[in-house]
Write a structure and sequence with these properties.
By secondary structure, the protein is of the alpha+beta class. The chain has helices at 42-77, 83-115; strands at residues 2-5, 8-12, 17-22, 29-30, 35-39, 118-120, 125-130, 137-138, 143-149, 153-156, 172-177, 180-188.
Length: 192
C-alpha cells in the first residue's frame, strides 16, 4: 500500500519569469501564506508603473472632458451651441470615461501581476519535491514544487480480485505500518 496526503498538488506561479529566489526545499514544513519562491519582479514593476502612468493620463483626460461637458451643457440649455457640438461633447466625455475605466482595469491587472511574482503556500503542508532552480526561466503554470497539505491522509492498497467481494464502501478497516509496528490505525473504505 501507499500512504499519502489526501490533497497533493503542484505549486506554480501565475505569471512567467526568471526564478530569483527559492526559500524552501523538499521536506520542509510550511505554513499558509509563507513565501516559498520569488520571480524577478523587474518586468512586473515596470508594467505596473506604465499602467499607473496610463491611468493618470486617462484621469486627466476625463477631468478635461467633464469640465467641457459641464460648460457645453450650460451653453446648450441657453441655445448658445448647436446640438451637433453638444453631442460631440457627450461622445468625448463617454470616450474619456471608458478610457479611464479601461486604464483602471489595466492598472489593477498590473498590480495583480506584480503580486504574483511571489509564490506563497495556500495551506499548511509539506514540500514534497522541487522542480525548478534559481536562474531558471519559468512559464506561467510551470511546476516549481510538489506540495502535500497537512491533515487528512489516504492509504491506497492493492487487494487481490478474489477478496474484493468481501469489502464495501464505508467498511471499517485497521492498518498497521512496518515503520510503526506497535500502532494500529482505524480507517474506512472510501472507494473500491
Amino acid at each position: 500500500g501507499d500512504v499519502h496526503a489526501r490533497y497533493e498538488m503542484p505549486l506554480s506561479f501565475r505569471v512567467g519569469g526568471q526564478l530569483s529566489a527559492r526559500y524552501v526545499n523538499a521536506g520542509d514544513v510550511v505554513k499558509k501564506g509563507q513565501a516559498l519562491a520569488q520571480l524577478d519582479a523587474t518586468d512586473a514593476d515596470n508594467q505596473r508603473a506604465a499602467a499607473k502612468a496610463a491611468l493618470d493620463a486617462a484621469e486627466h483626460r476625463l477631468l478635461f472632458a467633464t469640465q467641457q461637458q459641464d460648460r457645453d451643457d450650460a451653453q446648450f440649455k441657453q441655445n448658445l451651441i448647436s446640438q451637433l457640438q453638444w453631442q460631440q461633447t457627450q461622445d468625448n466625455y463617454a470616450s474619456a470615461l471608458a478610457a479611464r475605466d479601461q486604464a483602471k482595469q489595466q492598472y489593477e491587472l498590473a498590480q495583480n501581476q506584480s503580486r504574483y511574482t511571489t509564490l506563497a503556500a495556500d495551506h499548511d503542508g509539506t514540500i514534497t519535491n522541487r522542480q525548478a532552480d534559481v536562474g531558471q526561466v519559468l512559464a506561467a503554470g510551470q511546476t516549481v514544487f510538489g506540495f502535500a497539505w497537512s491533515g487528512e491522509r489516504e492509504i491506497d492498497l492493492d487487494i487481490p480480485e478474489s477478496r474484493i467481494d468481501g469489502i464495501s464502501v464505508g467498511q471499517q478497516a485497521s492498518v498497521t505500518l512496518p515503520a510503526l509496528p506497535n500502532r494500529i490505525f482505524a480507517a474506512h473504505v472510501r472507494e473500491i
